[in-house]
Amino acid sequence: MTEAIRAEGLVKVYGSVRALDGLDLVVSSGTVLGLLGPNGAGKTTAVRIITTLLRPDGGQAQVAGVDVRADPQGVRRRIGLSGQYAAVDEHLTGFENLEMVARLYGMGRRAARVRARELLERFGLTEAGGRPSKTYSGGMRRRLDLAGALVASPPVLVLDEPTSGLDPRSRLQMWDVIRELVAGGTTLLLTTQYLDEADQLADSIVVIDHGRAIARGTSGQLKRQIGGERIELSLADVTQGDTAMACLTEVASAQVLRSEDGRELTAPVDGGSQSLMAALRCLDREQVDVVDIGLRRPTLDDVFLALTGYAPAEQPSDDSSADTEASR
């Protein structure tokens, strides 16, 4: 595959903060790269450099073969950008927003109107196209913003947390739009804090922290890096804990862990469903009363916790992040 985006050794410094510290990224044409990381890891800084909104202090980057430093205008002609907040004029209608963007790209009035109508239809906004965008829901505003990023039919699209703040239904609708774009050949760089979003959409993932890539691979590869499956069991009667522990020990590939109250047991296993069936047979034979038991595979949440040291919900505040510095 050809490379739609390549970044090598990107460095960006704000005072004593190194927002990027030698970041490397490669996005193959027609694929989705998910860029994951805690708040302040450097995701937005990387996006701003790749989209020519910031100049790097070190390293280099090309988009569709065009250097971001040497020819920023050339890069801008080849990309579409949708940031963390919908960039729409609230006082203009949806149609007028898209027509304005098309005119800014140099289209004639007639061509701009045609393109605006095409995009309103594509994003399910035809009926709302004549209303001021300030009357739109959050999901509608995000779709309008994404439509604006596609006015010039760019081969490369950069989405910086495109579903941030959306309700579950709007998120799913946005996912469908993104899948349609990629199926049509668009290359996508996606930053997100929703790990299920990266799991669903990304062909490959790069996890960054403190401005550096700390892991990269497919979702499956990253999950396998942190270990295999495990059986999780909940007891109805805590006095049967030792018996349950013995059953799980028979199938476990490592030490069986037990919660402080003695009701929850976790056993790492290598045999997958066969290990689960063997454990169930033992528990049934010993008449252990089980409330719940299941085979759990690692998730991207587990990967994130293992790599960064905390879960996504526990990420440090943006207030002290380098990405916040970059936005000032």
UniProtKB/TrEMBL annotation:
Keywords noted in UniProt: Antibiotic resistance, ATP-binding, Cell membrane, Hydrolase, Membrane, Nucleotide-binding, Translocase, Transport
Compartments in which it is found: Cell membrane
EC top class named in words: hydrolase
Main location: membrane
Keyword Hydrolase in annotation: yes
Pfam family, any one: ABC_tran
GO terms of biological process kind: daunorubicin transport; doxorubicin transport; response to antibiotic
Domain of life: Bacteria
PROSITE patterns: ABC_TRANSPORTER_1, ABC_TRANSPORTER_2
Single Gene Ontology MF annotation: ATP hydrolysis activity
Coiled coil stretches, renumbered: none
UniProt-listed SUPFAM superfamilies: P-loop containing nucleoside triphosphate hydrolases (SSF52540)
Entry annotated with the keyword Cytoplasm: no
EC number per UniProt: 3.6.3.-
Membrane topology: Peripheral membrane protein
GO CC, one annotated term: plasma membrane
NCBIfam families on file: drrA (TIGR01188)
Family of the protein in this entry: Belongs to the ABC transporter superfamily. Drug exporter-1 (DrugE1) (TC 3.A.1.105) family.
Protein name: Daunorubicin/doxorubicin resistance ATP-binding protein DrrA
Organism of provenance: Actinoalloteichus hoggarensis
